[in-house]
Amino acid sequence: MLVENQVEPKVVQDLMRHADINTTLSLYTHLEDEEKKATLDSVFHTIVAQNDLGVERVSKMAKNHKLS
After folding, report:
1. How far, CA to CA in Å, does 27 sit from each of 1, 12, 17, 42, 57?
2. 36, 26: one domain
3. Residues 40, 61: one domain?
4. Same domain, 50 and 19
5. N or C, which end of the chain has less CB nearby within 10 Å?
6. Which whole number is the average pLDDT over 39-56?
7. Whole domain around residue 44: which residue ranges?
8. What pLDDT does residue 67 have?
9. SS3 call for 56
């Protein structure tokens, strides 16, 4: 719950009184499958959008310079 609300792991460690940050990280930072999928989808769409923009720019440059 704390990690889902973007509380820093170090704060969670202190609140849970874990001596080792690895304990906190292993217990409280498991990403749900839906979160992983949403992140991958976001990254994919960003890459596709950047690629489409790059293709569009090259096409315009080719037309402007009449490249074959």
Report:
1. 11, 11, 13, 26, 47
2. no
3. yes
4. no
5. C
6. 82
7. 32-68
8. 52
9. helix
